Amino acid sequence: MQNTNEQFDTIIKICRDIFNKKLKDYGAAWRIMRPESVTDQIFIKANRIRSLECKGVSMVGEGIKPEFIAIVNYGIVGLIQLELGAADTEDLTAEQAIEYYDKYAEAAKNLMLAKNHDYGEAWRSMRISSYTDLILMKLNRTKQIEDNNGNTLISEGIDANYFDMINYAVFGLIKMEFEALFEVISKYGWWSLLIAAGMGLIYICVKLVASKITDGVKGGMDDIAHKLTGTVANQLQEMSSTNSSQIEMLSNNIAKQNTDLIKAISTQNFQTF
After folding, report:
1. Where do the domains of the chain lie?
2. What pTM was computed for the model?
3. Of 129, 147, 128, which is closest to residue 139 (Cα–Cα)?
4. With left for phi above 0 and alpha for psi between -120 and 50, is residue 196 left, alpha or beta?
5. pLDDT tens column, 180-206
6. d(Cα 83, Cα 92) in Å, to the nearest integer?
């Protein structure tokens, strides 16, 4: 029981953190939703979980865990809406919304503990897909009660169904978060864990080798570029040196010719005089 208590708190903390972040992004925009709309939203989430469980493939890259979290949070939103009624505007601050969230999360936990006391932890022997089906069953009941304007002859009301949906979703998240590894071991044996660890090591080694190859190719390309750059620079320097030598030689030749010409003219003039 103590383990369940701690695991429940861990899951609710995860759900609450997401709820709080969305409050900061959008505010309590859900306050305009009527309870029937909340029920339909939960139905969409639960139906998608069932579809993924049957098909085993997600086309948008999201698994069932976010959907279970959404069911927990929408279930609490539904309870808040039942108490306050739908609003025409966003009339709750983030702090007030979190207070209501904590109130109903605690109430859901107390209900879970009471039922665990009566039934034991039979839910731990259930498959996650069974929680999905139970949530869908509760949704169909809730929709029927809503269509009857909330009136029932013997059944529990809408709020009780919301509480059950919340707790079934939490159970599914506990199974995924804490018991998935043990289910694999019990089904396939301890050797499956060793194979998984070996595959993980192989994956890491492949990544390292690929990284080294990439670095080697990059380093080789850098060396080639450096050598090409050096070769071009040397050629330019040689061309510059050659041109400088030629220019200097030409200048010296011109200077020598001018000197010889001046001497010749001077000698001729001196003899004439």
Report:
1. 2-188, 190-273
2. 0.66
3. 147
4. alpha
5. 655 555 555 656 556 766 666 776 766
6. 13
